[in-house]
Amino acid sequence: xxYRSPYLEQEHLKGYPWLFEEIKVxxxxxxxxxxxxxxxxxxxxxxxxxxxxxxxxxxDTRDIWVENATFNYVKxxxxxxxxxxxxxxxxxxxxxxxxxxxxxxxxQEINRVLKVGGILFISVPDVNDPHFWDDYSxxxxxxxxxxxxxxxxxxxxxxxxxxxxxxxxxxxILRLFNCQSHAMLxxxxxxxxxxxxxxxxAIKR
Length: 205
Known about the structure:
Number of helices: 6
Order of helices and strands: HEHEEEHEHEHHE
Distance between the termini: 22 Å
Number of strands: 7
Radius of gyration: 16 Å
Low-confidence stretches: 1-12
Strand order of the largest sheet: 3-2-1-4-5-7-6
């Protein structure tokens, strides 16, 4: 029987139509989830609120401090994740690999710390994102094909991959239809309307 978190309808997920879909990817993770490139820990915090019995870990190259943090922060690099082999049930990697000159090494390192069958959720800017090059630290954007190839070469099986529209860009359309669902953002993204990112769910082989 598929595990379903009773916490996914909580208040902290309302108003973020994409967040619910990203978090529910980890429904079957019972022990440990890692967020690679966790930044300020916003996603880690929401993971912990949704799965309070699961140990949530975040790594980033920067020193961060979160008041009353509910997750475990470790300073570290995605090229050398400071954990032993095969200890995580799931891993998130959001808005990270577009900054990397060697993304394959990072994907292989994520693969190393995931258990066989472990889940990876990854999200990166799309090649059509009009603001991609506004960030000088960006190295390359992605398409479905390039992200799929990267994940497969890194030891993953891609279960799902899709485009999303920017919530800011698609706001007028969403208000017109009185809808802020992830499905609508995904539909618009697949049509290329305000497309801003490509996301994938992959399984460690």
